[in-house]
Amino acid sequence: MRHLIDPMDFTVEEIDQLLEVGDDIIKNPQKYSQVCKGKKLATLFYEPSTRTRLSFESAMMELGGDVIGFSSADSSSASKGESVADTIRVIGCFADIAAMRHPKEGAPMVAAMNSPIPVINAGDGGHQHPTQTLTDLMTIHQLKGRVDHMTVGLCGDLKFGRTVHSLITALSRYEGIRFVLISPDELKIPDYIKEEILDKKQIPYTEVQSLDEAMPELDILYMTRVQRERFASEEEYLRLKDCYILTPEKLEHAKADMCILHPLPRVNEISVAVDKDPRAAYFKQVFFGKIIRMALIMKLLKVTPAPFDHEPENHGTECRDTGDVINHLHCDNPRCITTIEQELPHSFRMADEKSKTYRCIYCENPVQEK
Ligand code: CP
Asked: Is the dihedral of CA 321, 322, 327, 332 positive or negative?
């Protein structure tokens, strides 16, 4: 059974197929209006959401299916201490597919490991948000006509911004991509993204602090919110929250066809005056999010005719590593799902043999064997 937990769970060819189907859904919505009749999607949201939850629900309804779910941990039996593994086994008795958002990193992965139905990661802590990435790729594809050969600026909270981690992971598989990583020192991209994706694949990137200096070379500017909910200290958040504010003046030096994306919600980092700029694409992005989630639901439920009925047996060499797991190390990431699920074995995969670095299979936190 296929799940979508990490952008690397699909090959580039599969993602390209999703983009093609998304394009066809826009052109021929009627063709898809009943394909999920009799099927149910469960939205399991342990953390707040507007776009992701409602776009999943809207997507399933537009496919003719039904939706069940909860929108906060408080309104589910998680508040009584039910584990993620037990919850998904129960949900598997009610629904055909589930989308899960959770504040703890790796929770959707734990669900997938115990699930009788396909599980979609709808955002796990500061880790990954693969369906936002599909949304971003669809937006870029629709507006620029391609996903390759571009200079992509990612600006703001690159440390906790899960959408940034997933987007870099996904774009690094396309040719001619160059990243400009724009952030203050405190919010730089995690080392594991640099070492295991950018350096390993020799993707060109620069790390800078000035948005103004980076602006003229960008084809895509991906703005992000400073993730208040992930900070250990409110004081630190207040100090960094307005580190970048995009204004019409700042855009004077941008390319005429640059696309401004933002996963939303926006707080202060894009001035409302920018909304009138034809380069502002963040509300179009929300629409494409619903379309690509329709394509994704169809793929995982295998309800559509071609092209999804010709999936490769081997899901591709570029997919996520599924090598041997070891259990004698301990994950010390305070945001990892292992911190709240005491029964869950701490499990690791080798990341770098030379330095004896392992990564937690749930949250990807690195641990070195002594
Ligand atoms: N982009 C995004 O994940 O938005 P929500 O938090 O509203 O779902």
From this structure: positive
Going by alpha carbons, the residue nearest to atom 5 of ligand 1 is: 49
52 in catalytic set:
yes
Residue 181 CB burial class (10 angstroms; 0-12, 13-18, ≥19): buried
From 44, 50, 261, 283, the mutation candidate for ligand 1 (largest count of ligand atoms within 8 A of CB) is 50
Strands 357-360 and 119-124, bridge-based pairing = unpaired
Q: How many CB atoms lie within 10 A of CB 271?
A: 15
Give me ligand 1 centre to Cα 50, in Å.
6
Structure pTM? Answer: 0.93
Active site residue 101: yes
Q: Which of 39, 53, 101, 165 is catalytic?
A: 101
Residue type at 166? S
Q: Where are the alpha helices (DSSP H) in 3-156?
A: 12-27, 51-62, 84-91, 107-113, 130-144
- Distance from the alpha carbon of residue 176 to the mean position of ligand 1, in angstroms: 29
pLDDT tens for residues 189-215? 998 899 889 999 999 999 999 999 999
